[in-house]
Amino acid sequence: LSVIFFTIMILYIRIASDEVHSSIIVFFRNFFGILIIGPIFIRRGMALLKTSKLKLYILRGFFGLIAMFTWFHGVTITPLAEAVALNFTMPLFVTLIATLFLNEKVGWRRWLATLFGFGGAMIVLRPGYEQLSFGHLELLFASFFMALSVITIKSLASTEPPERIVAYMLIIFAPASLLPAIFVWEWPSIIYLSYLSIVGISGTLAHLCFTRSLKKVDITSIMPIDFARLPLTAALAYIFFAEKPDLATWIGGGIIFASTIYIVNRETKINKKL
User: Fold this and answer.
1) How do residues 6-47 score in pLDDT, each as one tens digit?
2) Nearest-CA neighbor of 146 among 106, 80, 97?
3) What's the pTM?
4) Which of 45, 102, 192, 217 would bridge 188 by S-S if both were Cys, CB 3.0 to 4.6 A apart?
5) CA–CA dist 49, 65 (Å, integer)
6) Is the pLDDT of residue 181 over 70?
C-alpha cells in the first residue's frame, strides 16, 4: 500500500505542477495530510503529542522540510523514473552521514556497497554524456536531507509510536511550508485543488503504511517491495506523460537498489548481534 500511495503522490505532484507552484504543492500536501491525521488525533487526544523528544522532532522537521521542498521541485522538472531511481540513493547517504558525523564504524563491505550504489547513480545521471540538469542535483540534495531525516526518525522510532511521528511531521510542516508558499501564492482552480488533495492524502497514507510496516516486519523484507516504485512509476510516466526511461535508468536503478539491499541487510545483522 505504501508503494502504491507514494506512486500516486509523485504522479499527482507532476500533474498539479502544470498550474501550481511547487512550494504551494508542498503546503497543500501537508494541509490535506492534517485532515487525514485529524481523526487519529481526535481519538487519541493530547496524549498523542506527549513526548520528551520535542527538540528531535523539530530537528527532524527542519531536515524533512528541506528534503520535501527540493524533492517536490525536482520531481516537476525531471523524468519521473529517473527521480525515483535517484531517490534510492538515500540509504547510501545514511551510511556516509553515520560515518562522517556520528562516528559510526563502517566495514569495508558497506563502503564498497556504498561506492557501488553511487556508481549506479552516475549511470543514471551520465555526467559528460548527458547534460546534468538542476533537477538531478536537486534530487540528490533532497536524498541527502532525507537521509538526515531518516537518522532522526530512527532515533525517535525506538520510543515513539508511528502516529505521533507522522502527527508531529504534519504539525511542524504545515505552518512552516506556508511561509515560502505565500510569496508565490495563487489560488488553484477546483480541479487542481482536487489534485492537491490527492497528493496530501496519498502522501500521508504512504507514510503511515510505511512506518507501521517497519513495526511489523524486518526492513530487509520491505526494501524489495519498495523498489517496485521504479517500474510502477515508469509505467505511469509513460502512460500520462509519454516518458520512456532509457536502459541506463534501469541499469543504474538496479545497481542502486542492489547496494541498498546489501547495506540494509548488513545493518540488520549487526543490530541483531548487538
Assistant:
1) 999 999 999 999 999 999 999 999 999 888 877 877 777 777
2) 97
3) 0.83
4) 192
5) 20
6) yes
- Helices 219-226 and 247-273, packing angle to 10 deg: 170
With both helix axes pointing from N to C terminus, report the angle between 80-87 and 134-157 in degrees, rounded to the nearest 10.
40
Handedness of CA 96, 99, 104, 107 (dihedral sign): positive
Per the structure block, which three cell numbers stand in for 27?
A: 503546503
Residue type, 51: T
Report, in angstroms and rounded to the nearest whole number, the Rg of the chain calculated over CA atoms.
18
Burial of 231 (0-12, 13-18, 19+ CB in 10 A): middle
Of these ranges, 92-96, 106-110, 128-132, 260-264, the one predicted with the greatest mean pLDDT is 92-96
Angle (CA) 148 222 210, round 5°? 60
